[in-house]
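Below sits the subject:

***
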Amino acid sequence: MNPQDILPFTRPDIDEETIAGVVEVLRSGWITTGPWCARFEQALSEHFGGRPVLAYASGTVTMEVALRLLGIGPGDEVITTPLSWVATSNVILAVGATPVFVDIDPVTRNIDASRIEASITPRTRAILPVHLAGLPADLDAIYAIAERHRLRVIEDAAQAIGSLWRGQRIGSFGDFASFSFHPNKNITSIEGGCLVLPADADIDLARRLRLQGVQRSGLDGMEVDVVGGKSNLTDVAARVGWGQLQRVEAFNARRRDLAQQYFAAFDALGIEARGIQLPPRDFAQSNWHMFQIVPPPQVRRAALMQALKDRGITTGVHYQPIHLFSLYRARGLRPGDFPEAERIGASILTLPLFPAMRDSDVARVTSALDAVLRQFGL
């Protein structure tokens, strides 16, 4: 098959103005963290209602920084979801704490807030919810629980830039919020992320943790009093991210339009009556980062993916249940611990969805999926 005929499940859209801006940065002689990073942070702060924002080299490290700012470490527990990219729980392990998983809501596929309190112990320090596919978790319930039990909240909002909760942008309120700008996200800085910080956060420490713990003073003064990492964002990446941020509303509007087209096509095909679970039809809050379906158990996901690939359609898996990876099974977790996450994680499939998709691409995907499902007897 001609590579040009292959439809990816996602593709970043970088405009010519941003490309020209990157060239200017490269020619400037200052390509690592500098004025464009500061400008990007300021634009992000404005996007999040004026809250403090720091940019980092990845969305993963921002969650780790938030945990470190809260002093979370060995002996502490952090409640999170088992259905996410493994970074969500790996950062908890990285600071020496213990991830405590709570099963998901089978409809939203986010952490089931009604199950959280049963998992709180004297060692619990924080709740780390994930806004899967850009659909916000139940923040009213989560923040109410956090307040009752004096816990902190670190929102894994990696996929949720532009998403809303009751009319407010995710990240514009609440406690810590971590965003990713990986190329498969709604906006990208090639690699990168940002951390939105609450008013009581030690912003100076957050900066120092970003670059080896170094604190400078004057022309030649330097001090290091904490172990930091190397996670500063370059100006090249920041220039890409800044250009993308200017287009986030248009990107998300196109994603909503494509998602609506998916639903219309699937309704016409009677997909749900054939056992395919579609995502919640939320066009008020979700940024439609992904469009994910859940086929019935008798359909092997790998076979379905291969059949679509043979038709030039690329799909993805987001995600397999974290607690079934050997790293977590070695910590005593077992199949059956979180049945909803296991059921959905065994079948969930991400269909192509990105702003540059054509309307005809949606028709192509839905038609191909219909044909393949018929081959599977559905």
About this structure: The two ends are 27 Å apart (CA to CA). Residues 166 and 285 are 7 Å apart (CA to CA). The chain has a mean pLDDT of 97. The first strand starts at residue 53 and ends at 56.
